[in-house]
Design goal:
Elements lengths: L5 E3 L5 H13 L4 E5 L2 H13 L5 E4 L5 H13 L4 E6 L13 H23 L3 E10 L12 H8 L5 H16 L12 H20 L5 E5 L17 H13 L7 E2 L5 E2 L6 H4 L6
Parallel strand pairs: 1-2, 1-4, 2-3, 4-5, 5-6, 6-7
Antiparallel strand pairs: 7-8
Helix pairs in contact: 1-8, 3-4, 4-6, 4-7, 6-7
Keywords: NADP, Oxidoreductase
Protein name: Jg16761 protein
GO molecular function: oxidoreductase activity
Length: 281
Amino acid sequence: MPEKIAVVTGANKGLGFAIVKGLCKEFKGPVYLTSRDAERGNKACNELQKQGYNPKYHQLDVTNEKSISTFCSFFRSQNKKIDLLINNAGVLFLNDSKEPKASQAEQTLLVNFFALVNFTEAILPLVNENGSILNITSSSGHLSRIPSEELRKKFIDPNLNLEQLTVLMESYLESVKLNRDVADGWGDSPYVVSKVGVNAYTFMLNRQLSDQGILVNCFHPGYVMSDMTRGAGSVTPEKAAEGALECALQPAGGGLYVWHNGAIVEWDGPDPRGFIDGKSV
């Protein structure tokens, strides 16, 4: 029987690193740690090896078509398929970032949405039937974070396809360029829009792959302490990884939006930050 394989993107540090470490303990098969920077990725693997774990490494920049192609070619040449994919790579501009809003929006959607989609679509033929895909998302990805009811209806349309979703996300970037993002009902956060897009893609992909037994879910890990947040946060990467691993290794189904405490929440329901996290929203 072929060995099972797991792949984690953006895994040389933070939550991705902690997820790889946990998979090395719990996943029955090779675990591939990937990163944009090969030197940092190999260093992360060496650190885990010193702790008694044995991850494998492969360079992967999800924003680079050549890197994606090389990664997919590697698995095809080895006649290997993937049983678990965790899309963790992401970017966040903090409130004090100096970059213009349009630049922040373009980069945020490029990494968090478009690159995730492009890579996932490229690797799909190499995902085993009855496999699993987990997209790391955020509380920002809850549909209630989009102010416009009209836009929310577009996102939850059960007939929404990838081409239409892509056009929708591109229309947001156009609104930002025209300085109309708030007026057009998108709100003022590129990160929110990027993660709402990820969640919409998650549910769409789960519907598409259901006949192959592939489960696709998204997981909000909480406010994770990381370089991306400059150390701010309320949960360690190790603690956040515990929830991600449970969601990845023991999914309760497909097309689920799972909160950091394991609760399955309605994407288009009330904002869970209020009734789960006890925050005023």
